[in-house]
Amino acid sequence: MVLSPSPAPTPAPAAAPAPAAAAAPARTKLTHSGGVLQKNREFLDFFWDIAKPEQEIRLMAISGLLEYLRSSEGDDLEYTIQRLIEGLAATRETARPGFSLALAQVLQCKETILLRTILEQIKKKHDINITKKKFIRNAVFGNFFGVLALSQSGRLIKEPDILLESIQLLQSLSKYRQYLRDLPAKTIMDILSETPENVFKKILFGALQEDMSSAFSTPAQLHLLLVALQRFPKVLKPKNLKKLLGSSAILSPENVAKLIELLKVAARSVKKDQTLPPLALDLVRVTLQEGTFEMFWKDVVENGLLKEPSGPTSYFCFRLLGASLPLLSLSQLNLVLTGEVMRQYGDHVVIAQLPKRFRFGPEMTNLVDSFLESTQDEAKQFMVIKGFSSLTNYGHPVIPSYWKVVCRLQSSVLVKYVDWLKNMFTSPDFDICTEFSTKRQKENKQAIDRTQHSVVRLRSWIVARLISIVDNWQVKKEEDLVMDIARFIFFHAFFGAKRYTSDIPETEVTLTIPLDEKTRDMMESSFFCLLNHLNSLPPLGDSAELGDKNEKRVFGVTADGNLWIYCLVQYASVLLSQERSVQAVKPFTQIQRKAWDRMLQSVEDLQKKIKNCSETRGLCFPAALPACWHTALQGWRGFSGTIK
To answer: What is the pTM of this model?
Structure first.
């Protein structure tokens, strides 16, 4: 919460008053008449509420305190500063951030208060050198939250001398890692992100030079250098970097081993948090600037971190892959999506299906979903969705056939993706897949036709994925795409191509590997599952926007008013009439064909009568029509009794 500064402030005293002197006036006022007593109770209650753990209560108290100070007179401001500085070292952990934020807002509101005065009061009140051993922890936190308040006030950058002293104080606090962990280093990085380049060059570069020279000592020091490199590239030129590190780039052959060890430490440090260490993405950005990303991915990640047989480093690599997607070019995306990190991720997904195993899959799904939502680059969207769809175990992609991220694809990318899926169905190409086997699968010496087995698994998944695209209402698709998918599945479930004809686009590509009986049966069942989805499909594309909002929506109908199932019946009739170009898997007998023709004619006659009947003019389709068409299509299962 940022509160606007107040005009016409009263200057604060140059030195902090003694505690007794500050407290005495308050006690005197509390003995006065009821109105003054009530006012001071309200004033003191602000400090109680600032220390409470509930954020809403804290923010309301800070807002109320600032409003009170704007209209107050006398020594209330002195007392406020004193109370807030004391609260920085409060014993309760939840109270310290509240007092720090309140002090920051007061300094922002009362710009006449000298930052040097506040910094001196903080150092004096929380002097670690004279504090008893049992209170050192509180004093350390008092100094840290004091500098944090100066930083959050927004005024620190305007006073370079105080900025330098604050940075030096944070550096001195770094040795109290048992209390603060990496908080001082993170605060320095936050300050650097707001520091102008000229201030960094003249004031801070010298103060931080020792820390940056020790970048390969700890993850925090490495992160500090990475932030400075991105923020001040003109100051930290290659020649200056060579003076600091002995090399003109962060990633060089001699630094690979050091980086691997630092990243292992960083990965273990966030084991409980299950997050990506902040320095990871900054390291990726710097290697991209240096042009060394390929070396980083191959030597540091794949040949370094992945060799570590531990969960934290593996999950670090998985998270790094997903989080890096928005930063990479097409060639770099291809590198990471076809490498060892992807194979190990696939291995994890397969093994994690066992009970009581940690599953990283949902987190990776969220990372990919975030990438597809944020990018408008069609080529990158297609590269990523194809890359994950190509991660296969014996032909079966490890991502689920119903994957929520598909709804993020742009319409043109979705069409291209469906075409790619159809091509992989008709001409399975495992050379472009990132294929892997688990340890147990490698040890299994059972003699099976792995190629045919993989083809069956891949085709089964592709059909399920195509149906999920139709079924998922959140996927933005046009009617032509839905009809294209339905025709494709119907054709390959019940027909085969003899030769190409322009009337039937499905005959353009022939199967490089014929469909076996198991796959045919699967496709037959899948087709009728698709019919059920089509019968409940809402209007698509522009037709979904038309009509009165209060008008009852009709499902299972195309924009021109035809049933989806009727469109497929018409397609089946076209296929039956093209005997020279296509061949039915289970051809109709002469009796069955006549029964099929009679049924179509009967239903069409019924539809015409319904259309001309004034009693049913308000209805589009009686319930009998979809049932009739559905019964007609059931004949393709090979049951002659169904047609009769």
So the answer is: 0.83
